[in-house]
Each structure stands twice: as structure tokens, then as C-alpha cells.
Amino acid sequence: MSRRRARSPRAHERYVPRWPLLAGALALLLVALVGGYTGGLLVSGGDQPDESEMTTASGILVQPPGAPEAEEPAEEPSEEEVVHPAGLDPALVYALQNVHGGRVMDVAGTSTANGAPVHLWDRHDQTNQQWRFIPVDGGFYEIEGVGSGKLLEIPADPAAQPGAAMLTRTGSPNQHWSLIEVGPGVVRLVNRATGQALEAQGGAPDNGTTIAQAPDGGHAHQQWRLLPVG
């Protein structure tokens, strides 16, 4: 029986060990794993961009977790609108027409002196028949004569001067008037100090009738129509 001889390697065939290839593949895999792990740490760790920067860059504002809520700005108190009676506008100048006789309140003789009396007269719209209403506290008004700049008042001593008169501003209640609305553009003028109403004395409608005070009875000669001048 013949014995088979072992085949010797051919000249072009060489033995190549495989463990270096496996080692290289393992090394690449290890590098990939370590790189991915390190990248995850960078994203989740201290190198993470500031949240406010991220949200600003993206155009979306997100409040950071745990931050106090922003306080809304306090609303400024709105000014209350003052409602004047009978459509009165303090910026305007008025003639005061007595409802009973149709004549208007007039400073006698166009006087500008303290103590000048006030009476009824035909309307001519001169400054001694023009009146301005100036708001004061408590919803009352001063009634200022345009011709003199003095105020309509009930004298402190009605016995010495029975009718209404003009006097320099003192701030006293006898120079303050409440406007009681009767109808559109019509009021009663009630004095703050006395509680009595301004009237054409005795209900007379004539020129020269004294304008004085009397208990408020709501009569036509105690009613005054507000007529804007100009």
C-alpha cells in the first residue's frame, strides 16, 4: 500500500494569520462605542447650550424650569369720568335764563366791584351776563362772572344785602352751588351753605327783578336754562 505524501504549499500560497484582522475590527468597534458614549455625555452634560440661548435662537421663548413666573404689570387706575348735570361743560361760558320770564341773570350796571347786586335783564350777551361753572369738591360749583372774575354768592348777612351778589373768591360754602337737573339744559341752583334755591324774587319776570334765595320749591322762577354763549 502506498503512503500519500503531505502536500507542500505552492509557491504563490502563503499562510496569513487571521487574528490581526479580528483585533482591528474589535478596535474599530470599541472606538465607535466610546465615541458615541462621549457624545451623549457632551449633549446631556455641562457643555449643553444654555436653554435661554436655545429658545431665543429658535424664536420660541420658554421659561426655564423652576424660574418664578413673570408678574404682569399692574394696571394703572383709570380716571373716573366726571358727569356734569344737564350736559354742562365747564369749558364753556353760559347765559343763565330764568325759565319763568325768559330774562337772564345780569350783574347790575356791569359793575366789577365786590358786593355788586345781580338781577334779571333782557339778554344782550355782554360779559356781565356771561357765567362760567368751576367744579369744586363734593360735586359743587363756583359760578364766576366773566366780566369781573368774581363769584356769585349769598352774602353772609342777608339782612344787610338781601339778594345774591358778586364777591372775590373766598372758598366759603356760600359761594358754592349744587346744580339740580330739572330737564335737558335746565337746572335749579341750590346754595351749599343755606340749602336754598336761587330765584327771581317773588316770581316777578321784569327787568331789574332781584335775584335772591328762597326755600327750594321747584317753581319755574327757580329754574335756570343753561345757554352756551359764542
TrEMBL record:
It comes from Nocardiopsis alborubida. This is RICIN domain-containing protein. SMART domains: RICIN (SM00458). It holds the Pfam family RicinB_lectin_2. Residues 91-227 form the Ricin B lectin domain.
